[in-house]
Structure formats: C-alpha cells, structure tokens
Amino acid sequence: MVRERIPEVSACAFMCVCVCVCVCVCVYHKQVLQSFHPLAMRWFLASTHYRAPVNYSTRALEEASGRLYYVYMTLGDAISALDAAGEGY
C-alpha cells in the first residue's frame, strides 16, 4: 500500500488525493474513454503529483496519449532490433 511506503503523508491527505482522483475519473470517464485509450488516462493520473490537484484538460490527456504512444513505439523498435540481432543478444 502506498501509505505504508510514504510515512510522512497523513491519512487525511492521502484520502483527499484519492477522493479528488476518483471524482475526476467518475465524472469524466465515459467521455474520456470514448476519445482516449484507458492507458492514456492511467498515464495522465500517474504523472500527477500526489499532493497536487488533478488538472484535467483535453490537452493534458492528449500529451499523455502521445507519451504512451512514444513508449509503445520505442518498445516495438527495441523488440525489432533484438529480433534482427538474432540469438546473440
């Protein structure tokens, strides 16, 4: 559990962050998931600092989607390079 690894976070602060994230997801999840992949939403939420408010915007989700696309393209390129290298890698 996150609270056990971060002892300086009070239970109240931890619950406030959880409530803010849950409200954001519950209100917008249907609209967001029609436009963005669920992993892009997860990337967006994971990139938000736990003590900062969640700043929801379409632009932020587009940036998260772009970063996620970059990660998957890089992973695909790495797998292709390893396959091309053969058994010696």
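^ that was protein a. below is b, sequence first then the tokens
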Amino acid sequence: MDGIDCVLVDFQSDDLKLISHLEQPWPLELKQRLHSIATPGENEIDLMGELDSEVADHFAYCTNQLLRQSGIGSDQILQSVPMGRQSAIAQTLNTPSPCR
C-alpha cells in the first residue's frame, strides 16, 4: 500500500490508448493510519469511516492532477471504470492486475 495509481485511458476504439498515468504516494500520516486499521484495535469502525472520507479526498485530488497533467478537461470524460473491471482492463493492457 504505497500510494494511488491513476490512469487515463481512451476506450473509444478497439485498441485501448493510454493517455496519461500518475502515481501519488500516500501522505505518511494517512499511510500509517491505513496500516493501523489492518490490525484489531479500538474504534475500528469510527476510524474506517474517517479513513474512507480521507481516501476519497485523495482519489479526487489525484484524478484532478491526472486531468491537469494530461490537458484533458473533466467534461471530456465520458465514463469511469466500475470497480471489479480492473482485472479485465489490466489483462487487455497486458499489465498486472491490481486485484490479485
């Protein structure tokens, strides 16, 4: 769990086209808190709720960074990939699946 990996892919033709990618490390304090929830402890449900919100904020930040870096506006994004489809996409792109 080293960070967030983002990719921007064009799915409009039969050949997938990688437009841009970004790797953003987790902030140290957040990374430590994410690791801490992997072991039993007090207030796990409360902590999970807090972390869920913080992780979502970082996903949104990385998405915006990726779009800025690629020069693509959010209005040009037609669809995001639903969870569970990553394996099929990784296989199509001939990359390791993040789900394994």
